[in-house]
Write a structure and sequence with these properties.
3-stranded parallel beta sheet; 21 helices; 4 domains; D-Maltodextrin-Binding Protein, domain 2; 5-stranded mixed beta sheet; alpha/beta
């Protein structure tokens, strides 16, 4: 509409009526962007499909950027509409065309982007890392000058921008590098390094930490450049209403507390499982789980449990081996005792389907004896501990926890006191006596890690399926969504 008016101005001047139009054009004042968003009752946020930003798990959205964006949408009282896009180019284009109000995709505030876009307050300081695959007998590189092959990076990323600047500033010291094909993201490149398809890539520390459990061969050689601020990106303009609202939101104590929780939950990983264990898990993920997965899913559905949780228990118990037998006589995928199997209606413990269904039923029965006031995920961790050490010993540990002034309804608190069950000065005064109390602590910890890796694999599958579906529908390659600029001026 605006372009059509401008093209007609010379003709109107020739007819002598241009002056009558000037007041109309100059009197038009656009509404502040924040007011527009509240009028539309919708915040449009461009993001990426990845385990560190946005994903769909069991039909529910999740991810660091999703949860943070949802909190901001709630803060301004509007509906959140996420727009998942395949590349950084598409995200910046969505902002440029006004198809999104904010880009929340773990984007670094580089000098190049700062010239073209505005940013909200930064909420992360991201360290760029050089990633390589260990175990090939070669020492890790100590500097860019020691690299024996090109670095592959995501196209149009902060990594590519850094290497471009290095080419200009230090051409004699800059490493050889190349941008990956459009649509290839950090996870794809990490997987390529892990599979020895490429030698090196750059990854932000958060993305690497969130993914390294699934790529145990990968190591960070060294930090590259100074940490960069990560922030939400906005279209550049004179209207700062949205930017000022973001400043107010990020300054809230509740937002800062949420950020700490999200960082811990999405980015921090525990490295107690060693390389061999991780590699064995990945091997069994491909060779053993496919034959059992349907039964895990069916049993989980029957007992209203997570199939990944059941599978994680099964892996901890037997490494998904239907013929597993322990020195104490427990057998099968879920390693049931003869007594437990009989109580659960199982007549052949080495039958994988019977074992899985029996284990699911037993886990559910244990969970029903955990006090209802205990919230998730502690409810699940207590049930796992009872599955391993028995309900009576778990209650003894909770009594010790309360006596020490700690909260007996929190797993982390009880885990500190469970090892006391193996010490005479403690178990002599307990109802159920001696138990190897350190074992349920490690048992729960291992299952938490296997559960994380199983869910990560499920996210990868969901992301790939969603991207493939969009490709099949020709959405990723199709024309951009209708621009907000196409709406009448009074709704912008």
């Amino acid at each position: 509409m605006k372009q059509a008016i401008i093209r007609k101005i010379p003709l109107l001047i020739a007819t002598g009526i241009a002056l009558s139009l000037v007041p109309v054009i100059s009197s038009y004042t656009a509404k502040p962007q924040l007011e527009v968003i509240k009028t539309l009752k919708e915040l449009r946020v461009a993001t990426r499909l990845s385990p560190t930003t946005y994903y769909v798990e069991e039909g529910q959205p999740g991810g660091f950027e999703y949860e943070l964006a949802q909190a901001y949408a709630d803060y301004i009282g509007v509906h959140l509409k996420l727009i998942p896009l395949a590349s950084i180019e598409e995200i910046t284009e969505a902002l440029r065309l006004n198809n999104a109000h904010i880009a929340a995709a773990g984007l670094s505030q580089t000098s190049d982007r700062a010239q073209r876009f505005d940013f909200g307050p930064h909420y992360l300081d991201s360290q760029m890392l050089l990633i390589y695959r260990s175990g090939d007998g070669m020492p890790p590189p100590q500097s860019m000058q020691q690299l024996e092959a090109p670095i592959q990076v995501v196209a149009n990323s902060n990594h590519a921008h850094y290497l471009q600047q290095l080419d200009l500033q230090l051409p004699d010291q800059a490493p050889v590098w190349e941008a990956a094909e459009p649509g290839i993201d950090t996870l794809d490149l990490l997987r390529a390094v892990d599979q020895d398809l490429i030698r090196y890539t750059l990854a932000d520390a958060e993305a690497f930490e969130a993914s390294r459990a699934f790529f145990p061969r990968l190591q960070a050689a060294f930090g590259v450049a100074e940490p960069q601020p990560v922030a939400w990106m906005l279209k550049q303009g004179s209207d700062t209403s949205l930017q000022q609202s973001l400043v107010a939101f990020f300054n809230l104590d509740s937002t800062q507390a949420l950020l700490q929780e999200l960082k811990q939950r999405h980015f921090e990983t525990d490295k107690r499982l060693n390389l061999v264990d991780n590699l064995t898990f990945r091997h069994h993920l491909k060779t053993r789980l496919p034959r059992l997965r349907t039964w895990f899913e069916e049993a989980a559905s029957e007992q209203q449990l997570s199939w990944e949780l059941l599978a994680a228990i099964g892996y901890q118990e037997s490494h998904w081996n239907p013929k597993a037998v322990s020195p104490t006589g427990v057998r099968g995928v879920m390693m049931l005792t003869q007594t437990t199997a009989r109580e659960m209606g199982i007549n052949k413990r080495t039958d994988p389907r019977q074992s899985i269904f029996g284990g699911a039923k037993y886990f559910k029965s244990l969970s029903q004896n955990i006090p209802e006031r205990i919230a998730e995920p502690d409810q699940t961790w207590f049930t796992l501990a009872a599955y391993n050490v028995g309900r009576g010993h778990l209650e003894d540990a909770r009594i010790l926890t309360q006596a020490a002034g700690d909260d007996p309804d929190l797993w982390d608190a009880v885990a500190k006191h469970l090892p006391k069950l193996a010490q005479a000065r403690w178990y002599n005064n307990l109802k159920h006596g001696f138990a190897r109390g350190h074992e349920p602590v490690q048992y729960v910890h291992n299952i938490q890690r296997y559960l994380t890796m199983l869910k990560l694999e499920s996210r990868f599958e969901a992301i790939q399926e969603e991207i493939q579906a969009k490709i099949d529908e020709n959405e990723l390659m199709g024309p951009p969504a209708p621009s907000l600029l196409s709406q009448p001026p009074d709704t912008l």
